[in-house]
Specification:
The chain is of the alpha/beta class. The protein has three domains: 290 residues, Rossmann fold (3-Layer(aba) Sandwich), CATH 3.40.50.300; 119 residues, Domain 2, N(10)-formyltetrahydrofolate synthetase; 82 residues, Formyltetrahydrofolate synthetase, domain 3 (Roll). 36% of the residues lie in helices and 21% in strands. The chain has 20 helices and 25 strands. Strands 1, 2, 3, 4, 5, 6, 14, 15, 16, 17, 18 and 19 form a twelve-stranded mixed β-sheet that branches. Strands 20-22-23-21 form a four-stranded mixed β-sheet. Strands 7-12-13 form a three-stranded antiparallel β-sheet, with no helix packed on it. A hairpin with a 4-residue loop joins β12 and β13. The radius of gyration is 23 Å and the shape is globular. The N and C termini lie close together (11 Å).
Amino acid sequence: MTNLDIAQSAKLRPIDEVAAGAGLSKEDFDPVGRYKAKLTLSAMRRLGERPTGKLILVTAVTPTPAGEGKTTMTIGLAQGLAKLGKNAIPATREPALGPVFGVKGGAAGGGYSQVLPMEEINLFFTGDFPAVTTAHNLLSAMVDAHVHNGNELNLDVRSIWWPRAVDMNDRALREIVVGLGGASNGYPREDRFVITPASEVMAILCLARSLEDLRTRLGRIVVGTNRAGEPVTAEELKAAGAMAVLLKDAIRPNLVQTLEGGPAFVHGGPFGNIAHGCSSLVATRSALGLADYVVTEAGFGSDLGAEKFFDIKCRALGRGPDAIVLVVTVRALQHHGGGSDLAACEHGLENLWAHHRHLSYYGPPVTIAINRREEDPVGAHELIVDACMGRGLRCVLADPWNGGGTGCCELAEAVIDSISVPSPSKPLYDLSEPFEAKLERIVEVAYGGLAVEYSSKAQHRLEWAVRHGFGELPVVVAKTQYSLSDDPHLLDAPDGFTVHVKDVSVSAGAGFLVAQAGEIMLMPGLGKHPSAVDMDVDAEGRVRGLF
């Protein structure tokens, strides 16, 4: 059976039953159809004031293009904790349409560890992504309208940084020209699109503590500079209020259910390779106010999502996780080991050790979870477990796809045992450090690299950012997810490499500086055989071919 077959054969509980089982009253949520709901703002505020649950972060080794099952493991672990009688809630990200119709397919988990209703979550869900896209493009339209109608702020059309956004992989939109067709259509200039998960509006939505904080952050967005080189903001363009209107419901966390009928939050969706890669702060805080254990994920490998989780989200959350789960697959180790046999798997262990070293820095206990797959060669699991035991590392075999919660009970027990002694967490760097020192620290500890090299453009942009008061913001590194370095061809655990920063940009509303390293793209493209070609719908509206 496929993920879709399993999801469509499941018997869903009405959302009011799920909410009641989680301890929510009818005044705490607004149903969106029969199986989805949004928390009210009052419930979101109340729950956020009592985040007493234990927080578990799920991350992974350097992934293959197909991914290594972090979301599946996140949901399976929450179900496993429930099997042990614990009150547990997974808090995951919303799928983006680009990957859904591209290579990876859906992002609602897999097999018997999914969040439901799977089709709706993978498509338009509760409208959060369309709201983010529209709010982003409203600001884009207001920038051009301002320039066209007198340009009172003296925006320099050569220095407008704010792009446009669309939630689809479309390589033709990476570099465009707008304003063609005469004076009535505005001033011709170069422009570009980013995919919605890369929008600063998405990052703001996921880091805002409240609707008021969201509105304030939107106003801080820097769209470009005036002719004197000073920053021009969305607040100065009088756009932030209308953007907040579009996002007033999107900031409310989405409540759904796991395949085993437990509550789940699915909210926000920044990518870990081009943004901070974590689900929303308000969903995490709400879950922590409801459950004894909250299981959340961070995008791609630990070098991307987990580093940003500690250095960005944890600062906003005011606390770190109580435990970390590091997901590994035999497929990933073989990929990094350059083959398909046990020898390649053993060689690829260097990538696992590199990620474990990195995660060990932060403080919380780390449990390695082998995500079992049917095609794993005989002896591979034992090889990994023995190698981990030889290093004194905690390692458990889990089967969330086939076994759901039952397949993750041993992992759940190991995680509970690991947090019996409190272990406070720490970030990689202090915010007061210079940008260069922060980035060097990330490269050294999270990547295992040696140095950082800046292009002249990046150096110029960085100097501008520091000069205008943005130097103490945390750092988001946008780089390939396929290597610990910025070169996707350097597999396993490279060392002694240099990270090449091509550009530095300011995300003042989200509250970080972005260092674009290597050949990273903010707008993916569809491949020769995207998932979209296998999808269809029958006369009854039943979806077919969704991964």
